[in-house]
């Protein structure tokens, strides 16, 4: 039976990023890493109008720069140079600009397929073995690791298993790891749209009485739409003809980007705040959406996971003992606890604050947006949160 120092279960963006973060150190230490993924990556990147995308914070760019991957990613990354935040039908607005923060961009929007292709091509299969397509059907805890049973009938053993198989992790449930789940009573509709005017690197977050929406800039003058409303209303929007959908979107968003020209395939996702009650056990780490899944409107989920990836890689590479020792993994979890608490709280409270129809709260939050636009310290704090840098300074100050 094959034995590995580390098995990463889930070769998506988070799992592959961890493999890359460990790759050079693993080569120097002689570690054997296996990456187990259900879906085989394509042989080459295929451009698609309907490609799903992720918002990368400036902090995540810095992580990928340290890993040497940013030059490749940046070829298809659209810079967010300005974020416009507004509350529909009310006076409050705020604008965050990269120039004001002294950075080239507040963040970037990258197609998941392109980011995945960059990651997979950067992995050295002499250090990171692939089992793909393959799925772990069962995990058995051992005194010094785990035994994994795969759907092809094979087994392997590892010192440390990293569970990065997504928010609906069946293995997390199989292992008896409970989750705290809070439904938002909203679904998200995701689609790409083409505006009539050039987006010029502008991102828009617009809060309405029916739910928040975001339009993020993509290459080729497309925008990634995230539109959240009640499940019944989202199903109605999903079923509209393209022109009727664009007209309704235009009525809510307005004409800041001119007349909306085209919409692609529409996908719907239920929204919940999900947090695993255990992120580490002896010889086990839960990572990515399996550890915490956030509301997408603040764009914090993947970026928080990337900071977890960085912290876990640093802890493992600094270790001189068994990779699955509980004291080592608890140290990693303790290091990330404050970052996770602040980021989850920021995302959740922002969502709830703008979801309530209470008129007095509406006045208060609009005064807050107005103050945010007028008070440089408040604007800088908010911008650093959006860039994935705010929690870092607070943690370093502890």
Task: Give the secondary structure arrangement, pairings included.
Elements: E1 2-9, H1 13-29, E2 33-36, E3 53-57, H2 58-66, H3 70-73, E4 77-80, E5 82-87, E6 93-97, H4 98-101, E7 107-111, H5 112-122, E8 128-131, E9 136-142, E10 145-150, E11 155-163, H6 170-174, E12 179-194, E13 202-207, E14 213-218, E15 222-229, H7 231-239, H8 242-253, E16 262-263, E17 267-276, E18 280-281, E19 284-286, E20 292-293, H9 301-318, H10 326-353, H11 359-374, H12 376-386, H13 390-396
How would you summarize what this structure contains?
With 398 residues, the chain is α+β, with helices and mostly antiparallel strands. The chain is built from 13 helices and 20 strands.
In percent, how helical is the residue content? 25-40%
Tell me the name of the CATH homologous superfamily of the largest domain: FAD/NAD(P)-binding domain
* Cα radius of gyration in angstroms: 21 Å
Helix count, per DSSP? Answer: 13
CATH class of the largest domain: Alpha Beta
> What is the name of the CATH architecture of the largest domain?
3-Layer(bba) Sandwich
Broad shape: globular
Number of domains: 2
Whole-number average pLDDT? 87
Strand content: 25-35%
- What is the fold named in CATH at topology level of the largest domain? FAD/NAD(P)-binding domain
Termini distance? 45 Å
Largest sheet: 9 strands, mixed
What oligomeric state is this?
Answer: single chain
What low-confidence regions span 5 or more consecutive residues with pLDDT below 50?
Answer: 359-375, 393-398
Structural category is: alpha+beta
| Number of strand elements | 20
């Amino acid at each position: 039976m094959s034995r590995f120092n580390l098995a990463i279960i889930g070769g998506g963006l988070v799992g592959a990023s961890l493999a890359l973060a460990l790759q050079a150190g693993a080569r120097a230490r002689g570690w054997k890493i296996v990456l187990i993924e259900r879906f085989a990556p394509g042989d080459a990147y295929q451009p698609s109008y309907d490609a799903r995308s992720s918002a990368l914070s400036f902090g995540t760019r810095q992580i990928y720069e340290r890993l040497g991957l940013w030059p490749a990613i940046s070829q298809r990354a659209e810079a967010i140079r300005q974020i416009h935040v507004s509350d529909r039908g009310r006076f409050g607005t705020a604008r965050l600009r990269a120039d004001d923060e002294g950075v080239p961009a507040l963040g970037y929007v990258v197609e998941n397929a392109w980011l995945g292709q960059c990651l997979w091509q950067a992995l050295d299969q002499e250090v990171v073995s692939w089992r793909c397509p393959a799925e772990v059907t069962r995990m058995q805890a051992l005194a010094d690791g785990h035994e994994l049973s795969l759907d092809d009938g094979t087994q392997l053993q590892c010192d440390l298993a990293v569970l990065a198989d997504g928010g609906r992790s069946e293995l997390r449930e199989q292992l008896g790891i409970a989750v705290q789940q809070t439904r938002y009573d909203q679904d998200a509709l995701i689609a790409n749209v083409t505006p009539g005017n050039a987006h010029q690197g502008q991102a828009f977050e617009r809060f309405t009485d029916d739910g928040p929406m975001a339009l993020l800039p993509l290459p080729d003058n497309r925008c990634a739409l995230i539109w959240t409303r009640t499940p019944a209303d989202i199903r109605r929007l999903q079923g509209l003809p393209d022109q009727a959908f664009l007209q309704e979107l235009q009525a809510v968003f307005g004409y800041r980007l001119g007349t909306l020209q085209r919409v692609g395939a529409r996908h719907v996702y239920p929204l919940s705040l999900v947090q695993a009650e255990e992120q580490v056990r002896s010889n086990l780490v839960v990572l990515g959406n399996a550890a915490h899944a956030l509301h997408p409107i603040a764009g914090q989920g993947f970026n928080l996971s990337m900071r977890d990836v960085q912290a876990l890689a640093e802890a493992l590479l600094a270790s001189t003992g068994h990779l699955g020792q509980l004291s080592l993994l608890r140290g990693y979890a303790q290091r990330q606890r404050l970052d996770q608490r602040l980021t989850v709280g920021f995302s959740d409270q922002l969502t709830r604050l703008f979801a309530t129809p209470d008129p007095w709260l509406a006045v208060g939050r609009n005064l807050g947006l107005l103050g945010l636009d007028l008070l440089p310290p408040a604007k800088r704090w908010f911008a650093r949160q959006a860039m994935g840098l705010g929690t870092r300074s607070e943690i370093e100050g502890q």
